[in-house]
């Protein structure tokens, strides 16, 4: 039999199996029309969208909280082009706006006093919010849509996906609990359901030659106008990498990886750095003081101490400039950190080149089992808590950096059940599906377009540091930063969230979608995940109703429904 005939036979068998899955009603509890795994912001929107179309939906969250990073500390939304935000994502940010329109929402301050980047009081949306406010809105959305929510259940990584040919029949949790369904949506940051369903995927960084790109792979320098220039997140001052300065035989200090710059654009399996987005406050009555971690070792922060005390500028930065505070950013007065949320709280992100990111600490996370990931998570907590204590107390830290820390602490009214520490690690990138349509740098920059758009991206192609290396002069440098802007919002195609037909016909993947490393750097923003989750939920509902594979739904009907829902599908239209 010819290959294309085999392919048609496999698809036909999949459609037959999909149509034979049990149809159940309420009390029978034999299955759901749509099973969403992962309560990220995209997962919530997928579940809500499908439920609003009359489907029986279950949303399974391995942890205890809905919203992923949006409710896990990232309150300063990475927006990009505001005109690209539509559908349920726009509804979410409108609900944020309504929440803060109520004077009772302002416990520490008044709304007219709130000033922050990207905040415009005249807009109908608000993009800056406290973690508990975001989580409350997600909880409201699923309750109003009558979505069944199951918390504390995670996929069995050994036998968690039961398939019949190319169709998922059910997924199985570690507890043994089983969830049969017609259509499945993997909305996790890791893509475990996708991977265990036998769907092909990518990890790490592709070589520039793989997809005709210029900013993929190894990136020791940024490319601007055809020239190599230092990264904006590189070391501006000279830092010696060796335990005994100037002596390579003494070994490397913590935080520096062996090796040189390497070949620009060469692919590898390395993953950009992760961190927690902390919610801090300088309100005394709402502040939990920083404390010394039980496993604290000041030797882990030698790199930080050397950088903060270095006075010798590197040749590429002759004018130098102020070193950013590793926790509070570029404001050293203690008045405010870089990004403020309502009620005098912060969204504290990484401050390059030394800060909250645990550079090179994420490599094993995408493919790791739960024990491996737990170890990596603990390492990130240890690094960040230790960094805070080091900056606040170590005499090697200049007083201008130590003094502001005395004004800050964890927000007492946030993350109450996790010791005021965020419940979600910022997994900036893990697995990425390899589908029939792969979003690339050329789609993001507008060189190529896509068929059947289901949402828009608009943020710069952004990657945090991947590693630190030693340059030819014996100085520590950073590698992996991408900051490639986009001229305008661009469409994301439906085929980026559908697996290839020969792999699976009833799975949608709106978070670990089909994209290269550099393109994913733009797409990986929480508003985009909400929009793609919304579109995945609508597509899942239509596939369940039509009894067809997700690849075979009526694309015109999908677009019509998305437009009805206010989804942004093209520039200047919503």
Q: How is the CATH topology of the domain at 3-17 and 33-204 and 483-564 named?
A: FAD/NAD(P)-binding domain
> Main sheet, how many strands, which sense, barrel?
7 strands, mixed
Q: Which segments are poorly predicted (pLDDT under 50) over 5 or more consecutive residues?
A: 1-17, 19-29, 331-337
Report, as a whole number of angstroms, the end-to-end distance. 47 Å
Write down the CATH class of the domain at 3-17 and 33-204 and 483-564: Alpha Beta
- At CATH level 2, the architecture of the domain at 3-17 and 33-204 and 483-564 is 3-Layer(bba) Sandwich
General form: globular
**Structural Rg:** 24 Å
For the record, what is the CATH homologous superfamily label of the domain at 3-17 and 33-204 and 483-564?
FAD/NAD(P)-binding domain
Report helical residue fraction.
Answer: 25-40%
Specify the structural class.
Answer: alpha+beta
Which quaternary structure do these chains form?
Answer: single chain
Mean pLDDT: 91
Helical segment tally? 12
In total, how many beta strands? 24
Strand content: 15-25%
Task: Write up what this structure looks like.
By secondary structure, the chain is of the alpha+beta class. The chain has a domain at 3-17 and 33-204 and 483-564: FAD/NAD(P)-binding domain. It is 25% helix and 16% strand. The protein contains 12 helices and 24 strands. It has helices at 3-20, 41-52, 87-101, 131-144, 192-196, 302-309, 370-393, 399-405, 441-444, 517-523, 526-546, 555-564; strands at residues 32-37, 57-61, 148-151, 161-164, 167-172, 178-186, 201-202, 222-224, 227-229, 242-244, 247-252, 280-281, 287-288, 340-341, 345-346, 409-411, 432-433, 453-457, 461-463, 467-470, 476-479, 482-484, 490-493, 507-508. The strands form 9 sheets. Strands 1, 2, 3, 4, 5, 6 and 24 form a 7-stranded mixed β-sheet that branches. A 3-stranded antiparallel β-sheet has the order 12-16-13, with no helix packed on it. Strands 7-17 form a two-stranded antiparallel sheet. A hairpin with a 5-residue loop joins β20 and β21. The longest helix is centred in the middle third of the chain and has 24 residues, at 370-393. It starts with a helix and ends in a 10-residue tail after the last helix.
């Amino acid at each position: 039999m010819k290959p294309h005939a085999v392919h048609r036979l496999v698809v036909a068998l999949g459609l037959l199996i999909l149509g034979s899955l049990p149809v159940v009603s309420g009390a029978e509890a034999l299955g759901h029309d749509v099973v969403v795994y992962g309560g990220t912001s995209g997962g919530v929107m997928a579940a809500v969208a499908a439920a609003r179309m009359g489907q029986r939906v279950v949303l399974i969250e391995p942890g205890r909280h809905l919203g992923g990073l949006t409710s896990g500390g990232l309150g300063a939304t990475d927006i990009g082009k505001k005109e690209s935000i539509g559908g349920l994502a726009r509804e979410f940010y409108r609900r944020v706006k309504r929440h803060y329109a109520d004077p009772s929402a302002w416990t520490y301050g008044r709304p007219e006093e709130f000033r922050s980047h990207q905040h415009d009081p005249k807009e109908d949306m608000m993009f800056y919010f406290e973690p508990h406010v975001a989580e409350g809105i997600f909880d409201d959305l699923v309750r109003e849509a009558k979505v069944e929510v199951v918390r504390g259940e995670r996929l069995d990584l050994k036998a968690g996906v039961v398939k019949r040919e190319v169709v998922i029949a059910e997924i199985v949790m570690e507890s043994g609990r089983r969830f049969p369904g017609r259509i499945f949506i993997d909305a996790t940051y890791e893509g475990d359901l996708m991977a265990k369903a036998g769907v092909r995927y990518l990890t790490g960084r592709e070589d520039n030659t793989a997809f005709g790109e210029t900013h993929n792979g190894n990136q020791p320098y940024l490319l601007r106008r055809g020239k190599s220039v230092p990264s904006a997140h590189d070391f501006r001052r000279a830092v010696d990498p060796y335990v005994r300065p100037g002596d390579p035989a003494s070994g490397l200090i913590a935080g520096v990886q062996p090796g040189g710059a390497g070949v620009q654009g060469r692919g590898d399996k390395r993953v950009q750095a992760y961190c927690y987005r902390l919610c801090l406050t300088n309100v005394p009555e709402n502040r939990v003081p920083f404390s010394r971690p039980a496993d604290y070792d000041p030797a882990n922060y030698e790199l930080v101490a050397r950088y903060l005390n270095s006075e010798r500028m590197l040749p590429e930065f002759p004018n130098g400039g102020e070193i950013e505070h590793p926790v509070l950013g570029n404001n050293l007065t203690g008045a405010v950190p870089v990004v403020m949320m309502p009620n005098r709280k912060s969204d504290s992100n990484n401050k390059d080149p030394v800060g909250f990111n645990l550079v090179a600490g994420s490599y094993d996370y995408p493919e790791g089992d739960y024990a491996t990931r737990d170890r990596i998570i603990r390492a990130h907590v240890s690094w960040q808590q230790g960094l805070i204590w080091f900056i606040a107390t170590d005499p090697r830290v200049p007083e201008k950096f130590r003094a502001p820390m005395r004004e800050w602490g964890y927000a007492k009214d946030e993350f109450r059940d996790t010791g005021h520490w965020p419940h979600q690690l910022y997994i900036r990138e893990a697995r990425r599906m390899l589908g029939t349509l792969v979003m690339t740098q050329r789609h993001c920059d507008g060189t190529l377009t896509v068929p059947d758009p289901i949402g828009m991206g608009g943020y710069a192609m952004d990657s945090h540091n991947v590693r630190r290396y030693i340059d030819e002069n014996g100085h520590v440098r950073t590698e992996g930063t991408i900051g490639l802007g986009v001229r305008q919002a661009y469409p994301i195609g439906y085929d980026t969230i559908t697996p290839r037909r020969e792999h699976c016909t009833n799975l949608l993947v709106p978070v670990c979608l089909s994209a290269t490393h550099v393109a994913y750097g733009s797409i990986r923003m929480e508003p985009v995940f909400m929009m793609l989750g919304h579109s995945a939920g609508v597509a899942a509902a239509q596939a369940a109703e039509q009894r067809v594979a997700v690849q075979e739904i009526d694309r015109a009907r999908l677009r019509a429904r998305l437009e009805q829902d206010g989804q942004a599908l093209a520039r200047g239209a919503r």
